[in-house]
Amino acid sequence: xxxxxxxxxxTLAFLIFVSTFTWASITGSVSGVVTDSSGAxxxxxxxxxxxxxxxxxxxxxxxxxxxxSFPSLPVGIYDxxxxxxxxxxxxxxxLVIDTNSALRADATLTVGTASEKIEVSTDSVxxxxxxxxxxxxxSGKTMTAVPLNGRAFTDLLxxxxxxxxxxxxxxxxxxxxxxPVDGGLxxxxxxxxxxxxxxxxxxxxxxxxxxxxxNGAAIIPNLDSIAEFRIITNNFDAEYGNYSGGQINVVxxxxxxxxxxxxxxxxxxxxxxxxxxxxxxxxPTPVFRQNQFGGTFGGPLVKNKTFxxxxxxxxxxxxxxxxxxxxxxxxxxxxxxxxxAVSFADSQ
Length: 348
Known about the structure:
There is one protein chain. By secondary structure, the chain is mainly β. It folds into three domains: 99 residues, Carboxypeptidase-like, regulatory domain (Immunoglobulin-like, Sandwich); 119 residues, Beta Complex (Ferric Hydroxamate Uptake Protein, Chain A, domain 1), CATH 2.170.130.10; 61 residues, no CATH class. The protein has four helices and 17 strands. The strands form four sheets. It has a five-stranded mixed beta sheet with strand order 3-2-5-6-9, with no helix packed on it. A five-stranded mixed beta sheet has the order 10-13-14-11-12. Strands 1, 4, 7 and 8 form a four-stranded mixed beta sheet that branches. The longest helix has 22 residues. The N and C termini lie far apart (82 Å).
């Protein structure tokens, strides 16, 4: 009996956890108007968006003005099917939904039977005409192709126009960027469009991940687990009205109908390093060993319905850097400080 109750409570907790992350997500939208060949709008047409990786189907119907809208679709590649009695089924493939994107996809149906189809392939770059937000989307493939010391997506923020590559640490200002992420990673506190470094917002899958002092990123996902991220620098939507700098939205990968995974190991070793500038020629190279390793794995629990995705990254580092210090001379031990740059007499 106790075991049964424990299993039920565990299942309930898991469902609450999953539903929370499902609700708190960063999405995109697709909208458009459905007309016939004469330009007249078609009401009550069935519009279905199909995620090509998961097979999940989301459907809506057009209103009296022929308008339809999918206001919140997860990031991915979609096929769009539009059908109505007396018309050929319209199908558009390859619609790419990026983070915070707003696509327009109008359709024209021609007279025919439902078994007949008109298919339109989309492989060109989409120009967003439905949103005024300005920002660049950086894909997971781009991130993993760039050599990053520490494997943090925050090192790529300066790729966006308007983001300063310099921080308060570079200019010697203390107390502004003094909360590094665990592992010594870059917290992403950078000036966007001239605003303060603490004026940026960070989200992962729709959840706020800022630390409380300088508003830097407190969570930096494993690069191999990130599908893409977007830096919004101007004309935010109202939901991001809390920040005057930039809004950084990260979307992690999802499981699909096929099992897939990856593994990695990044090595830094003493044998590959040069000596410190201040090391004596006869001294051994200071010890520095770093291993970053991990992997990802995802797949279906129930095909076309429920999926899982897990990732892990470990960092192991051993370091013995060269240290410099000023020691008293033999004359100093005897009370003679004439060889010092400033004597005690001069400092009185």
